[in-house]
Amino acid sequence: MSEMLQMIKSDAEERMQKSIEALKAEFIKIRTGRAHTSLLDHVMVPYYGNDTPINQVANVTVLDNRTLGVTPWEKPMLSTVEKAIRDSDLGLNPTNLGTVLRVPLPPMTEERRRDLVKVVRHEAENARVAVRNIRRDAIQDLKGLKKDGSISEDDERRAEESMQKLTDKYIALLDKQLADKETELMEV
Predict the structure, then answer these.
(1) Domain topology for 37-104
(2) Residues near 135 by beta carbon (within 8 Å), at least 6 away in sequence
């Protein structure tokens, strides 16, 4: 029977880890003042009738702290990639240099930084809610096992305490990611 408890706990932990990974992915999309290649990861480029991630049709590099370089693997794709970057929600304006696109990142204003901090806090809160929902699901599973008579009341209580510790651990990880991202955003 402790095998069932272990399965519930490991499933919950795996799902909580996925919530952390999803938050990291969201944070990467939210740009800071510095250029990094993953900034364009969610930009999709029409490529032979399919929307394809930019990193599958072009090489994205960091030219300097505030500039990205984008070199399409096929020269005719240059204008398509340029349009995809311009039309993205990032507010970037690439410059076509013939074979490569220079993508300068405009300096962020104080107001824009504060807006991004609000967005980051909202994303972190969504991740916290997801982690708490995972805990709730696991506790419901435990209550079901107790009701079936598969586990004792003491086993259920110990497993619930264990789930709470696991939840607290992942909430702390989320809070650390949030604090790091806020610090990064407020750097000038």
Answers:
(1) Gyrase A; domain 2 (3.30.1360)
(2) 12, 163, 164, 166, 167
